[in-house]
Design goal:
Length: 413
């Protein structure tokens, strides 16, 4: 009987305490500086009881919706229409010369076999055994393939297996293509580097760098000899395995090479791959490029998509990591802050570099190029468009003219 009474009393005490509201601890930060209007905007009605989420919300920067956009994609015509048996992917930014748009891209043929077979003969990824081609267009819709721009190197060269994922920069009358390279055989632990080619004309011919202009860090240590990228003794820097997706931006009298890094023993963080971005800086377009001591400059992302804006650099962060699907901005090209969270974005965006990117933060994203996986083996290049989203309204509900017009985008822009 005594035991039963004790259990009943304990249950009553636990029931009472569970109904109590936990008050903030005395050591909590003082939030009295926030106005009633600021709390009302966030739906907070009692400043004495602030959850962790409410505290974070109160500290949000005062940013409007000028950075918030949505995307859609559409088919292109001519040689960018889907072609069975051909891979066209990773379009570069778009430039214009003599009334024509130009873009460069990754091209290969044939299906992908993957790892585990004959690494000297098989094609392990769609971007394996590729060359860089280019195409032109007068309207941004119908594209004509002009031919190869940069091919793979001779057997034994650092770029003999594949050259891919190009990006274009125009500077002082010259054209510069940076891109990824792989040396054969393409094994799981293979490193990937960044190379450069230049020409006085967008139609070439192109002169290739004799070696890579950017390589992975060398402070990681593999564990054992098994061809397994997750077995490591020491992971090393964020780019100890691969350097990907290069893009060079002229900035503040120097040249900022933004890139994606992959680390030995790559892990999963916040439900996404452990992918981060870095930057290397040079005084000359051809280098040498020196990695910033502040690397990595992002904790998320995949393909590099950066552009100048208001004296700083903007960056679209997609696909991987806890800050994926955000647009960020940095006043110095290194220290980035989130400006908006978006629903998502197309793959491997090729920006319209002819746009007036100072008009508004996302003007350069109004239209451009992307790629689509039609099958696991074959991809094609498509167009994308975006629009600003200023308000949320239901069908038939009134909204501002600007918000309504923001959805009335033509096929190209």
């Amino acid at each position: 009987m005594k035991k039963l009474i004790f259990l009943c009393m304990s249950a009553a005490i636990l029931g009472l305490t569970s109904c109590k509201t936990e008050k903030p601890k005395a050591a909590d930060e003082d939030y009295s500086q926030y106005t009633d209007e600021e709390l009302d905007y966030l739906g907070i009605t009692n400043r004495e009881f602030l959850s962790a989420a409410s505290k974070r919300a109160l500290k949000w920067p005062k940013i409007g919706n000028e950075w918030f956009i949505e995307f859609s994609t559409y088919e292109l015509k001519g040689d960018f229409a889907y072609e069975e048996g051909v891979v066209r992917r990773d379009p570069s930014g778009i430039i214009q010369k003599d009334g024509k748009y130009y873009t460069w891209y990754t091209k290969s043929t044939g299906p992908t076999q993957g790892f585990g077979g004959d690494m000297e003969k098989d094609k392990v990824f769609p971007w394996d055994r590729c060359d860089i081609w280019y195409a032109t267009s007068t309207d941004g819709i119908t594209w004509k393939e002009e031919g190869m721009a940069v091919g793979r190197g001779e057997k034994g060269a650092f770029d003999d297996r594949s050259v891919f994922t190009p990006e274009i920069m125009v500077w002082d009358g010259m054209y510069y293509l940076c891109y990824q390279t792989v040396k054969s055989p393409y094994v799981v632990r293979v490193i990937e580097e960044v190379a450069l080619a230049w020409s006085s004309s967008p139609d070439g011919p192109w002169t290739k760098s004799e070696g890579p202009i950017l390589s992975p860090a060398t402070n990681g240590v593999w564990k054992g000899t098994e061809d397994n990228r997750f077995l490591v003794e020491k992971k090393g820097d964020f780019d100890s395995h691969k350097t990907h997706d290069p893009c060079i931006i002229p900035y503040k009298g120097k040249f900022y090479l933004y890139y994606k890094g992959e680390q030995m023993g790559e892990a999963m963080t916040f439900g996404g791959r452990q992918i981060r971005h870095g930057v290397a800086i040079a005084d000359n377009p051809k280098g040498p490029y020196v990695k910033s001591p502040y690397n990595p400059i992002s904790n998320s992302g995949h393909e590099i998509c950066v552009w100048p804006y208001k004296g700083g650099i903007a960056s679209l962060i997609t696909t991987d990591g806890p800050e994926r699907n955000t647009i960020q901005w940095s006043p110095d090209g290194i220290n980035f802050e989130i400006m908006s969270h978006i629903k998502g974005a197309p793959h491997a965006i090729g920006l319209n570099r002819t746009a007036d990117n100072e008009l508004e933060p996302t003007e350069i994203l109004r239209w451009g190029l992307t790629h689509e996986y039609v099958t696991a083996d074959y991809q094609c290049i498509r167009g994308f468009k975006s629009w600003r989203v200023l308000t949320h309204v239901a069908k038939g509900e009134g909204g501002s003219k600007e918000a309504t017009a923001s959805h009335s985008i033509t096929e190209k822009k």
